[in-house]
DNA sequence: AATCATTTGTGACGTGAATTCAACATGGCC
DNA sequence: GGCCATGTTGAATTCACGTCACAAATGATT
C-alpha cells in the first residue's frame, strides 16, 4: 500500500518551477512532465493546504498572498535539501573524519608509517587512529575500520586481507636459563606463559604433530592487554610469549629474545585483516579509500627464521 | 518519461524517525510501515546519496558522520516544511491582506460602512479597498474580489449576487429647464447625455416599449470615469445620466435631480455582484469570509419612486 | 553451547497512486 | 471572428513502492 501518498518535496519543486518559469507548460517541459501533470500536482497541493496558491488563467499566473509566502519558503527549503543531500553525498569523495582502530604492533609498525602519505593524498580527511588489541565493537566504538590479526569471528563484517605474519614463541635468555628451553610442546606445562587479558578466537598456541595441529599453552604467569606489553613482559623474562615476527624480529636478531620450539610450528601464521561493516549500503568514500590504500601499500615482510653458524637467529626473505 | 519517483521529504521523514526511535521496527510502527519497507527506504536513500548514513546490526544503529550531519539538517528542513505548509494552510483561517475592488457609489455607500464590523470579526485580516468603476482585470490588479454592477462578461470568474439596484435617468432642474423634459425615449436624441470613459456591457439605456426593451441614449456631452463623477456632472446641469437609485436617491428627494421617462423604465435594474476567480482551487479563507459577509450584510434598499402630491418625488419601500 | 526473541535484509509479487493521453475550455492576438 | 497557446478534465495505463514470507544475524537467557 502506498502510505506516503504525498511527496511534499516534489510538490514544492514543481510549484517553484511553475512560479519561476511563469507557466505550467514551461515548468512541465523543464520537469519532463505533461501540463496536465503539473496542473493536477498544483491542484493537489492546494487542496491539501486548503488554500489557493496560484490564480491562473490560460495566459497569466498570479500568486496569492499565501502563494508568495509559500514560494519564498519553498525556495529556501529546496535549497537546503539540495545542500543537505549534496553534503551527505560528498561522502562520495573522501573527506571527513576517519576512525581507524588497529592492534598495537601492526598499527605502530605498519599503519602509522603510511598515514602521512594517505593524508597527503586525501587532504580533506582527518584521521583518528586508535591502537588497541582488545576486541572491539566497531559500531560501539564508532570506528570505520579495524585492523586485526588472527582468525575472525563470524559476523556480517567484511574482512579484507592485508597480509600474513609468521608467529614465533619466544622467551628471554635469562628466562630460558632459569626454566630450561622446552624441547616439545608438552614441556610447556612446566613453563610460564604470557597470556591476554581479552579473549582470543583461539585459546592456545598451535603446534604441528605429524599432520595434525594441536594446541598447547603454558600456564600464564601474566596477562597483557596488548602485544607490545606482552613483548615487554617477555623481554623482562616473565615467561614465554607467542608474538608476530614483524614485531619481535629485531629482538630476536639482537638476541634479546630467543625462539623456541621452532621445529613444531614453522608455518605458524596469522592473517591480518582490515575489518569493516559490510555491504548493506555503500561505504563512505574515505573508508573505501583507506582500505584500498592499506591493501595496496601494506607489505608485511614474511621473513623466515634461520639459525646462523654462530647459533644466532637471523630473519631472511 | 521521467516520473517523480523520488520522494525526498518522505525519505527524510523516515530517516529522522528511525534515528529518533533508534530502530527500523519502531519507526515503522510509528509510520505505519513494515520494517522491510523502512529498510528499503533507507537503503534507497543511501544508494541515491552514494554513501552510508546508518551502520546497523539487528541490535544497534549508529550514524556515520554523514548520517549525523544529514540528520541535523533533515530535522531542520522538516520543521521548516511543516511551518511553511502550516502558514500557507493558515489561509484556512481568515488572515492576511484582502484586496477588494468596488465601484465607487456602491463601495462608498454600502461596502465601506460594513468594513469596521468585518475587520472587528477578523482581526488578522487587513483590507485594501480600492474604488474604481473602470473594468479591471482581477488578476492584474491582484484583487481578491471585485464588486460590479450590471451585466457580467462571460469568463471563468464566479459571481455572487449581492443585491439589485433600481436605475433612474435623471437631470438637474436647470438642465431640464433649458432642454425641456423628454417625453419619450426618442426625445433623447435631442438631449445631452453623460456617458462613461470605459466600455460597459450594455451600450445604451434600456426602455420598455410594450413588451420589448429598446436601447436609447442621448449623445454624450461628457464622459465620467465613475458614477460619482457622473452624478456631479448631472448635478451641474451638464446633461442626463442613468444612475443607481441608492446613489442619487437623496438628490431626487431634495429636488436636486429630477427623474425623467419614469413610465418607460419602471423596472430598470442592475444586479450587483461580488466577482472572484472561480473554483479551480480552494478560495483563501479571508476571501470566502468577506464574500459571505457581504452577502449576509449588504442590504441594498430597493425603493421605488413615487410622485408626491406636491409634485416632488419620494423614495418608498 | 544452545535456544529463543527480536531485528534487519532480500526476492517476488500485487496494488494503487501518479502520469499520460486525448478531448475540451479559455484567453489573447492578429 | 478565427487561430494559436495554454490550462483543465476524465479515463486508461503503468510503474514505483510497500507488503509478504522467509532468511540471517544478534544478544540475552538458561
From TrEMBL, chains A, B:
Q: Please name the PROSITE patterns in this protein's record.
A: HTH_LYSR
The highest taxon in the source lineage is Bacteria
A GO term (biological process) for this protein?
DNA-templated transcription
- Which InterPro entries does its entry note? LysR-type_TF_proteobact-type, LysR_HTH_N, LysR_subst-bd, WH-like_DNA-bd_sf, WH_DNA-bd_sf
A molecular-function term among this protein's GO annotations: DNA-binding transcription factor activity
* HTH lysR-type domain mapped to chain residues: 12-64
Swiss-Prot/TrEMBL keywords: DNA-binding, Transcription, Transcription regulation
Homology family: Belongs to the LysR transcriptional regulatory family.
What is this protein's function?
Answer: NodD regulates the expression of the nodABCFE genes which encode other nodulation proteins. NodD is also a negative regulator of its own expression. Binds flavonoids as inducers.
Name of this chain's protein: LysR family transcriptional regulator
Please name the source species.
Bradyrhizobium neotropicale
Amino acid at each position: 500500500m502506498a502510505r506516503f501518498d504525498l511527496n511534499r518535496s516534489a510538490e514544492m519543486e514543481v510549484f517553484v518551477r511553475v512560479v519561476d518559469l511563469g507557466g505550467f507548460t514551461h515548468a512541465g517541459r523543464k520537469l519532463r512532465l505533461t501540463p496536465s501533470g503539473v496542473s493536477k500536482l498544483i491542484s493537489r497541493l492546494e487542496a491539501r493546504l486548503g488554500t489557493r496558491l496560484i490564480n491562473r488563467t490560460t495566459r497569466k499566473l498570479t500568486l496569492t498572498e499565501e502563494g508568495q509566502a509559500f514560494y519564498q519558503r519553498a525556495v529556501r527549503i529546496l535549497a537546503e535539501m539540495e545542500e543537505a543531500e549534496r553534503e551527505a553525498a560528498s561522502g562520495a569523495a573522501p573527506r571527513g573524519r576517519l576512525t581507524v582502530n588497529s592492534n598495537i604492533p601492526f598499527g605502530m609498525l605498519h599503519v602509522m608509517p603510511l598515514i602521512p602519505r594517505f593524508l597527503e593524498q586525501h587532504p580533506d580527511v582527518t584521521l583518528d587512529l586508535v591502537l588497541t588489541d582488545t576486541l572491539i565493537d566497531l559500531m560501539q566504538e564508532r570506528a570505520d575500520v579495524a585492523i586485526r590479526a588472527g582468525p575472525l569471528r563470524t559476523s556480517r563484517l567484511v574482512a579484507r586481507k592485508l597480509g600474513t605474519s609468521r608467529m614465533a614463541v619466544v622467551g628471554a635468555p635469562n628466562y630460558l636459563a632459569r626454566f630450561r628451553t622446552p624441547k616439545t610442546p608438552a614441556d610447556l606445562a612446566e613453563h610460564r606463559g604470557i597470556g591476554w587479558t581479552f579473549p582470543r578466537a583461539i585459546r592456545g598456541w598451535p603446534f604441528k604433530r605429524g599432520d595434525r595441529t594441536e594446541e598447547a599453552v603454558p600456564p600464564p604467569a601474566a596477562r597483557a592487554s596488548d602485544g607490545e606489553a606482552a613483548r615487554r613482559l617477555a623481554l623482562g623474562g616473565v615467561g614465554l610469549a607467542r608474538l608476530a615476527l614483524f614485531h619481535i624480529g629485531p629482538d630476536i636478531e639482537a638476541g634479546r629474545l630467543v625462539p623456541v620450539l621452532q621445529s613444531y610450528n614453522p608455518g605458524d601464521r596469522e592473517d591480518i585483516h582490515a575489518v569493516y561493516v559490510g555491504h548493506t549500503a555503500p561505504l563512505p568514500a574515505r573508508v573505501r579509500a583507506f582500505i584500498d590504500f592499506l591493501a595496496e601499500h601494506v607489505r608485511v615482510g614474511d621473513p623466515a627464521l634461520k639459525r646462523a653458524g654462530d647459533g644466532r637467529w637471523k630473519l631472511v626473505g
